[in-house]
Amino acid sequence: MAAIHSLLIILTSFLAQTDQITDVPLKQEPARYEIEAPPIAVIGIPVGQVTLRALKLDGTLDTEFSGHPKQIIGLELWVRDVDTALPPFENGVLELKTDLAQNQKVFITADTIVVDPDIRGTATVVVYRISRWLSLLPPIIAVILAIWFRNIILALLVSIWLGAVILAHGNLFLGFVHTLDTFVIHEIVEPGSSSYSHMMIILFTMFLGAMVGVMSAGGGTAALVNRLSRYSTKREHSQLMTWFLGLVVFFDDYANSLLVGTSMRPFTDRMKVSREKLAFLVDSTAAPVSGIAIISTWVGVEIGYIADTYSSLGISEDYYTTFLYSLPYRFYPLHLLAFVWLVAYLGNDYGPMLKAETRAIAFNQLVRPGRFNVVEAELGSDNGELARRQLLRNALIPLSVLLGLAMIGLWWTGTIEIDRLNLERLEDGKPLLDQSMSKILEHASPNRVLLISSFLASISAVASCSFTKALSLNECVEAWSAGAKSMFLAILILVLAWAVATVCDENHLNTAGVLVELLSGSLSPNWMPTITFLLAAAVSFATGSSWSTMGLLMPLAISLTYSLLVPLNEADPNHHLMLGTIGGVLAGAIFGDHCSPISDTTVLSSAASGSDHLDHVLTQMPYALTVATVSVVFGYIPVGFGIQPYILLPVGLVVLFLILQFYGKSAEAEAQKLLDAGVRAEDFNLSEDREPDEAGIIDTNDSDSEDDPESAEGAVEEA
């Protein structure tokens, strides 16, 4: 009985249990692998790198593991467009990298990357994958809204917010928060950056505005304009002088835009040159001349891209020689510099630029009424109204300090950096770097130099105006402050443009990667110069950065052209198709940068020239498209079939001359027609967006705001 009783107790206790024995979870083992992957990926677009590490039970790296896991889900490796098995681990690490030069791509094919899913020590990581078309939305929306609303700040803010919403899984509120506290703020403070390049650009822009404010208030600008007016009495002369000064300041595009724009603006204002025209002259000489100058801050970057790609292909070559050989193949910047000279010399314009020039000449409206004038000093002292004495030295001293310190600073910082690198190379037994001017500029720190130079130049302006008694010290400080504050809108646009570029970079929406993947395919080597030019233009326009476009496309374009030439036994590093491809990438990046409203150099050019940014983009774009079309039709297409660039460059120049001569019109003649017809400034501005008739006169008949529509109509018909 006792045994039966004990058996019943045991049976009852089992029946009373609420959980089954099989439901008790087993102890989870620690993950045996570590996965390092980008948190965001675009579907069908390769990612930069994915790293897998094998771990021991204690979580340390298992350096003895050199095999394959049982299964890896969510990763694919494509080599030369063929799906390839993943390589084995080496010393516990498996690195999968996208190398466009070797035509190797890594794709994330699932929302979760899993290693060994059937064991308890499995490793997983979640990746947010988005559609490739979503990555193109922010730059497209920015351009559409800018043209639609004619407000670049609103367009950029909406574009950033849209990109942030996409990255926030569609959360509208979280996207708004990230727009301000992540993308916009991070462009100013740059967390994790040791160079603080954005803050330096912001500060030297403000200091340059401060220098100009003091020069203007102290009468130095007015004295400079009066002196220049003795030697230049025509509008064409002022434009040619701007073009020439843009060629002189060849060493850096930022310095070129800010120095030339701010120096020539009062003089071109006196000659009734519209701010849109001045911005075009400045913007179209800054990057092109820096990109093709054999000594500039661009040269080191361009040669570096060529050297890295050639080295990855196993090509031994004098990379600087290759850079020099590629200069004649830079059809767009070479044609653009010639086109700017033709525009200034002939005095002919067309499209929106003709309207802007006609408005400036006929009605003395240098900026379209109602538009943002981003750098107009608050003191209204461009004519030196506050100055007691108008002395030329009050302009020459700060300008000389700025230019002189910039040149000395570039040489000094480049020399120090070369000395530091040579010390390291000496310890490693490597050959030392020479201290040629090209090498010095390659290793210089232009942003830091411009920051210090602009600050000291602004201080020298204060000292000069104060010592010459042109202004009191308090008036100098007030003018300094007003000039710095006048750059606020320019800086705001610049920061927003940087934020859009960050939203679209390879760590977020990867817009450039999407464009490259969509537009590349099976190609003929003869068409590579043309295709790379157009592809670089598209990427640069969408991202607003010519340098990042060069870095992205140079390995892809050179490697692809080289692989196409190998079967033809023509794989010469200085083959005309290789040089044409290099020139196409570097020129196309500048072209897209010129047309992009989110480009930093475009923003700085409009800021230094005092032009509304969107008006600058819209008036410059037809000219840039004209030069790009001529560069493709009379440059990259024929050069791909063996015609020498020395023949094509003069042909393109003649075509540009004929376009301006027969399609362009004299703005002075158009302005005189308006004045003779009695057209008022209000009538012209109300109908400025309409197309002119054959006589070049704007029809203002149906404007509701006219005081006397019949008289306006009669004046137009008379003209």
Explained architecture:
This protein has 719 residues and is mainly alpha-helical. Helix content is 61%, strand content 7%. The protein has 28 helices and 13 strands. The strands form five sheets. A three-stranded antiparallel β-sheet has the order 1-3-7, with no helix packed on it. Helix 3 packs parallel to helix 18, helix 8 runs antiparallel to helix 9 and helix 16 packs antiparallel against helix 17. The protein is globular and about 85 Å long. The C terminus is likely disordered.
Please give a handful of descriptors for the protein shown.
719 residues; mainly alpha; three-stranded antiparallel β-sheet; 28 helices; 7% strand; globular
Summarize the structure.
The protein is mainly alpha-helical and 719 residues long. It has 28 helices and 13 strands.
* Unreliable residue runs: 10-26, 373-383, 691-719
Q: Which structural class matches the secondary elements?
A: mainly alpha
**Spatial order of strands in the largest sheet:** 1-3-7
Largest sheet: 3 strands, antiparallel
User: Roughly how many Å is the radius of gyration?
Assistant: 31 Å
Oligomer: single chain
Topology at a glance:
Blueprint: H1 2-15, E1 33-36, E2 40-42, E3 49-54, E4 72-73, E5 75-79, E6 82-84, E7 93-97, E8 104-108, E9 112-115, E10 123-126, E11 128-130, H2 132-149, H3 152-167, H4 172-189, H5 197-217, H6 220-231, H7 235-248, H8 253-270, H9 275-292, H10 297-312, H11 319-326, H12 331-346, E12 348-349, H13 352-363, H14 393-428, H15 437-442, H16 446-467, H17 473-485, H18 488-503, H19 511-519, H20 528-543, H21 546-565, H22 576-595, H23 600-609, H24 613-639, H25 645-662, E13 665-666, H26 667-677, H27 681-686, H28 709-718
Parallel strand pairs: 2-11
Antiparallel strand pairs: 1-3, 3-7, 4-9, 5-6, 5-8, 9-10, 12-13
